[in-house]
Amino acid sequence: MQNAYDVLAQIEAEGVPVAVATIVRVRGSVPREVGTKMIIHPYGRHWGTVGGGCGEAEVIRVGMDVIHTGRPRLVEVDLTGDVTAEKLGICGGIMEVFVEPWPPPEEHP
Fold first, then answer.
1. Residue at 82 is within a domain
2. What is the DSSP letter of 78?
3. CA 68 distance to own-chain centroid
4. Which residue from 4, 55, 91, 105 puts its CA 20 to 30 A from 34's CA?
């Protein structure tokens, strides 16, 4: 299995902008740990996971927006609460996921 950096190098060689989602903070019980990465590809070829389910679907939606705008975002995935159709999950914790464009935008002095 390729690591995230190998996948990013391959995608960058193809010239396709993607978003990289990284779990940066967790509180309580969550499906993945800090540092876990997911690459969000605009054509639906994603690599890795930040936990699956509706929470991951929200991260993918934000990733598509980040690809389009070129601006990074921080997403809070709340996995607390009762089991209902309105809830994203019930692992018992909260994850913060930083989603950034790749390749990164060029900085101008």
1. yes
2. E
3. 15
4. 105
In a domain, 57, yes or no: yes
68-104 pLDDT, tens per residue?
Answer: 999 999 999 988 865 555 544 567 789 999 999 998 7
Alpha-helical runs (H) found in 17-104: 53-69
For residue 79, the Cα-to-chain-centroid distance in whole angstroms is: 15
Q: What's the pLDDT tens digit per position in 11-70?
A: 888 888 999 999 999 998 888 899 999 999 998 888 999 988 888 899 999 999 999 999
Residue 108 is assigned to a structural domain of this protein: no
Asked, for residue 109, whether it belongs to a domain, the answer is no
Domain limits for position 56: 4-102
102 close to 16: Cβ distance less than 8 angstroms: no
pTM of the model: 0.84
